[in-house]
Amino acid sequence: MTAGSGRQPGRVRPYSLTGGRTRSGHVLLVETFVASLEPPDGRFDPAPGGPGARMLPEIRAIIELCRRMRSVAEVSAMLKIPLGVVRVLLSDLADQGKIRVYGTGRGPGQPDRALLERVLSGLRRL
Amino acid sequence: MDSAGSDTIPTTTVVPPPRVSGIPGAGIPGAEEVLQSWQTDRSRAPIAIKVVIAGGFGVGKTTFVGAVSEITPLQTEALMTRASEDIDDLTATPDKLTTTVAMDFGRITLENDLVLYLFGTPGQHRFWFMWDDLMRGAIGAVVMADTRRLEDSFPALDYFESLGLPYVVAVNHFEGAPLYRPEDMRNALSVADGVPVVHMDARRRITVVDALLALVRHAVDLAPE
């Protein structure tokens, strides 16, 4: 999908997901962190009338929202875009270099003992 | 009481109620969140970890999440196709090919580089397709039970038991509902001996934290050395 090319957005094309992995290989679990990558020349400036105005509204909204670190679930909830759709859009944006997928900061599978101990300590401080 | 927030959308649209807590910015729907420092540092992301809160309609999942979350609980949606609806009654109209399932979630920054997400998810069989995805990498699940409708928690118990995932049973005590001893609850729910059963009040933050602690301790016990 290219902004302004007139092609239909990802929300209407068929998509498939397996275990949070999109077709292009990004692992986008609900808690995976993403953030926008600052364009060097401000091309993605979403201001009305700017070049960014040619983007789909959803794409613009995602890039704007992700100026802060966000989880996939937060993007879905705050923009009211269903999870599956938001994953496809984020995956496309990552392929285009507009957002960075940070992941979850840990390996796949269940959390290990050391991490669980850290979570325990954190909960005890609440 | 639970809102309808973590169940099928067509029932109602939910605005999270304001809650009383010591968390700045909480309870004001739409208010700008209180920024955590990790949110503005795009050079690195914290470690993200999650817990799933499962249980029947109205059991208190949204209240549970809201009691500890640093943000007003948010709601995300997943689309469900008819093919996923195999066992339970079909609430979708005959011409509707997909229906929407909502999940409420909250967030707790435990350390500046460690963020815990809590996902409340509906407990009926027809939502199992979501749980497989949701449970990937999760610490485990808190299965909430209401003593007046114990059977509502059976599907979630079956699911987590069959997958061997860490889970605890949190009996949410509603006013006027009978209070049973934990061992009686364990028998009534056919929960294995090693699985913690805790009593709680989802409106009380301290008991919610205790339920989470019970789950994480249990997960530590089950984790390989």
TrEMBL record, chain A:
Task: Name the InterPro entries for this protein.
Answer: DUF742
Chain intervals for the UniProt region annotation (Disordered): 1-21
Protein name per UniProt: DUF742 domain-containing protein
Q: Give the originating organism.
A: Streptomyces coffeae
From TrEMBL, chain B:
Q: Identify the species of origin.
A: Streptomyces coffeae
Q: Which residues cross the membrane?
A: none
So what family is this one in? Belongs to the GPN-loop GTPase family.
Keyword tags: GTP-binding, Hydrolase, Nucleotide-binding
Per its UniProt record, what InterPro entries does this chain match?
Gliding_Motility_GTPase, Gpn, P-loop_NTPase
Point out the coiled-coil segments of this chain.
Answer: none
Cite the residue spans of the region called Disordered.
Answer: 1-22
Q: This chain belongs to which protein, by name? A: ATP/GTP-binding protein
Entry keyword Hydrolase = yes
